[in-house]
Specification:
By secondary structure, the chain is of the alpha+beta class. It has a single domain (3-87), classed as Alpha-Beta Plaits (2-Layer Sandwich), CATH 3.30.70.1710. It has two helices and five strands. It has helices at residues 22-31, 59-76; strands at residues 3-13, 35-44, 47-55, 77-88, 91-94. A five-stranded antiparallel sheet has the order 2-3-1-4-5, with helices on one face.
């Protein structure tokens, strides 16, 4: 089964949300629909990004999982740029 990842830039947190709640919410949304392989928070050029990696049968299923993750993130924080990528050998290719 192919491996996918959804990455999203995280902005200001919603009122009442603590930073440690954001990643678990995103991973739980993915886990409800797919097998989660990994989740992480990192900085890219000083911008925090949440990444959730998961398996899905095809691009359509992966986009549905990613939509659930983004909905969970939007309930926690402002969300900036997002990407959904599929693993292709040693590289990640953007799903369109």
């Amino acid at each position: 089964m192919p491996s996918y990842r959804v990455r999203a830039a995280i902005g200001a947190l919603r009122a009442g949300v603590d930073a440690p709640e954001v990643l678990p919410a995103a991973a739980a949304a993915a886990r409800a629909r797919a097998t989660v392989e990994a989740d992480d928070v990192g900085l890219v050029a000083g911008v925090p990004y949440v990444t959730v990696r998961f398996t899905a049968a095809d691009d359509g299923e992966a986009l549905a999982v990613a939509a659930a993750v983004l909905a969970a993130l939007l309930s926690c924080a402002e969300v900036g740029s997002t990407t959904v990528d599929r693993r292709a050998g040693a590289r990640w290719r953007t799903v369109r």
